[in-house]
Amino acid sequence: MADGYPLDPDAADVQRGAADRLTFFSDAVVAIAITLLALELPAPEGATAAAVLRSLGDHAYEYLAFLIGFLVVAAHWRAHHRVFRWLVGEHPRLVSLALTWLLLIVLTPFLTRVLTEGDLDTVRFGMFAVAQALLQLVFAAMVSVSAREGLFAPSAPALVGAHPWRHAAPGALGFLVSVPLFRLVDRWAFVLWAAVPVLYGRLVARRLPD
């Protein structure tokens, strides 16, 4: 084995097949999770157009929560697709981490529904935010293991496996910081999920040499 990748062509084919199965399975689970988000949407009621519009307004927060959940899952999938399309090998630790990542993805539709059940409070908000922070950290661990074990294709860009924890930090920090601040800013805490990574990126960029 060289750089974590078997030299035997047959073993290499097996590894590629295992990597493909892992990525295809991950894509399928993410697709199911996004579909489950839509299944929870309340249908507007009313016999007239005005009544339907009024019903849509009454459920505006549920629709907003769906959009937030969709965008969050889509962002996780985009990051996964960007990195793991270069995967050509498998490792037991990677499989375990991938299943943990998928568990948190599948929980996201449930946690999105929790956001809309009753009055939004720190516990409901925190459950969703902490789960998303964990997704960021588990993903970083997946990339770290893959890079360390040489599971990416030789033709993969150098940035694919570089500094996974540094890349995960802004997103995870945004989710985690929003939880204690929820008591102060209420639903504006959702904005922190996007604002903190942007601010973090600007601060880091300023510290880098020209």
UniProtKB/TrEMBL annotation:
Catalytic activity: K(+)(in) = K(+)(out)
Transmembrane segments: 60-79, 94-115, 127-147, 188-205
The entry's keywords: Ion channel, Ion transport, Membrane, Potassium, Potassium channel, Potassium transport, Transmembrane, Transmembrane helix, Transport
Signal peptide: none
Main location class: membrane
GO cellular component annotations of the record: membrane
Keyword DNA damage in record: no
Membrane topology: Multi-pass membrane protein
Pfam family, one: TMEM175
InterPro entries: TMEM175-like
Location(s) in or outside the cell: Membrane
MF annotations from Gene Ontology: potassium channel activity; proton channel activity
Protein family: Belongs to the TMEM175 family.
The protein's name: DUF1211 domain-containing protein
